[in-house]
């Protein structure tokens, strides 16, 4: 894999969290080439730790390695490449892990979350638009993760992957808008188009699930039932808008428990976990005309089962949801505005703020269910060091 041509330019030496071919994760020095045409460089203020990162480190998803992890974050623009005229040095941005190209068929149709260039080159190749990487060290090129690689002091991303936001928003808190909030709220608003007075269930109360709950509250749903195995997460779900809870660790049958709360079945059920069991539960809990929205992403190669006759007879739907069907340049600034107006609670969803050097521990805590959304703060390493 070639690296970006840096003739006449000096790379920036940064610290970054790298997953190597042998599965080892280390914080080490990495060279970051300057931004090319249509790209910007961003100093990371905060990076969110997401289950998608965990899937990669656990081997459930195959991505090119070595790779700098992280796909959720916020920061400040430090350099711009040729042809960039809508961002300038000093702008505050939230990073988007689907940097739509703007030119493919789906981007032209207003569906940048399905960008063909991202789906065929950026994400699977671990590169930027031109098929090369801006990251390297003495051993050779290092890949980008989902065009972001936010577990680092600085990043270079396509300009469409850096969404300008208002300067008065707290950059640490808004980091989670780039994935968890855009995905969860977007699943409610964009993918499902939840109507007022609807009944909603959300299976899984991690960062994305809690964002689904907040989205359902903002949409005017009258019943919002939260499902999880962790009591603290269920308590927070109520604070954020859930009207009822189901402790999946304490009931023999989650679907039966859900139907006990809403006997006729639900208008919308969001699977915010992505396990085969939870996907099947989401479908089974639907009412007439209901929609099951698959928001959490399963491991590659897994398959769920359902009764297609029952689905057809009840006029139900199964909806896939990638990135909340978001239009990042529209949705991310609006979500920041809603946070600033007090309608979205992000601070309560952040369970820890840790230095970049604790990335491995943060991933371990996420794996055992001890954390909601954790932030890695690159600047804290310098302070604590």
Structure description:
It is globular, with a radius of gyration of 20 Å. It has helices spanning 51-58, 105-108, 116-125, 171-174, 180-192, 207-219, 231-240, 254-261, 276-284, 308-313, 328-340, 359-367, 378-384; strands spanning 12-19, 25-32, 39-49, 67-68, 73-80, 92-95, 135-137, 140-144, 154-158, 162-164, 199-203, 223-228, 244-247, 266-271, 286-294, 317-320, 350-355, 373-377. The chain has 385 residues and is an alpha/beta fold. Strand 11 (199-203), helix 6 (207-219) and strand 12 (223-228) form a beta-alpha-beta unit. 50% of the residues are buried. The strands form three sheets. Strands 3, 5, 6, 9, 10, 17 and 18 form a seven-stranded mixed β-sheet that branches. Strands 13-12-11-14-15-16 form a six-stranded parallel β-sheet, sandwiched between helices. It has a five-stranded mixed β-barrel with strand order 1-2-7-8-4. The model has no long low-confidence stretch (mean pLDDT 94).
Quick structural overview:
This protein has 385 residues and is of the alpha/beta class. The chain is 30% helix and 26% strand.
Number of strands: 18
Largest pleated sheet: 7 strands, mixed
SS element count, helices: 13
Shape: globular
Work out the strand percent. 25-35%
């Amino acid at each position: 894999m070639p690296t970006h041509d840096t003739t006449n330019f000096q790379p920036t030496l940064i610290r970054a969290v790298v997953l190597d071919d042998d599965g080892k994760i280390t914080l080490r020095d990495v060279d970051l080439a300057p931004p090319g045409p249509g790209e910007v460089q961003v100093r990371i203020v905060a990076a969110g730790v997401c289950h998608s990162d965990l899937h990669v480190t656990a081997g459930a998803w195959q991505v090119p390695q070595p790779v700098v992890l992280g796909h959720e974050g916020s920061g400040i623009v430090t350099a711009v490449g040729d042809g960039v005229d809508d961002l300038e040095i000093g702008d505050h941005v939230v990073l988007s892990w689907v940097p739509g190209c703007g030119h493919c068929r789906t981007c032209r149709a207003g569906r940048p979350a399905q960008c063909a260039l991202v789906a065929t080159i950026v994400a699977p190749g671990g590169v930027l638009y031109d098929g090369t990487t801006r990251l390297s060290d003495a051993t050779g090129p290092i890949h980008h993760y989902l065009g972001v690689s936010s577990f680092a002091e600085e990043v270079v991303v396509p300009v469409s992957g850096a969404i300008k936001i208002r300067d008065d928003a707290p950059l640490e808190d808004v980091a989670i808008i780039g994935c968890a909030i855009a995905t969860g709220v977007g699943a409610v608003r964009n993918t499902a188009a939840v109507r007022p007075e609807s009944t909603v269930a959300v299976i899984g109360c991690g960062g994305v699930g809690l964002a689904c709950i907040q989205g359902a509250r903002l949409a005017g749903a009258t019943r919002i039932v939260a499902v999880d195995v962790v009591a603290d997460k269920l308590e927070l779900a109520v604070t954020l808008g859930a009207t009822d809870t189901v402790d999946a660790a304490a009931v023999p049958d989650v679907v039966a428990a859900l139907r006990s709360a809403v006997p006729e079945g639900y208008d919308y059920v969001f699977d915010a976990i992505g396990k085969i069991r939870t996907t099947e539960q989401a479908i089974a809990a639907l009412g007439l005309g209901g929609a099951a929205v698959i928001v959490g992403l399963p491991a590659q190669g897994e398959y769920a089962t359902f009764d297609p006759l029952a689905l057809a007879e009840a006029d139900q739907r199964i909806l896939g949801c990638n990135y909340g069907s978001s239009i990042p340049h529209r949705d991310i600034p609006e979500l920041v505005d809603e946070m600033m107006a007090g309608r979205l609670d992000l601070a309560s969803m952040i369970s820890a703020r840790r230095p970049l050097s604790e990335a491995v521990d943060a991933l371990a805590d996420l794996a055992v269910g001890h954390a909601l959304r954790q932030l890695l703060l690159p600047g804290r390493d310098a302070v604590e060091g």
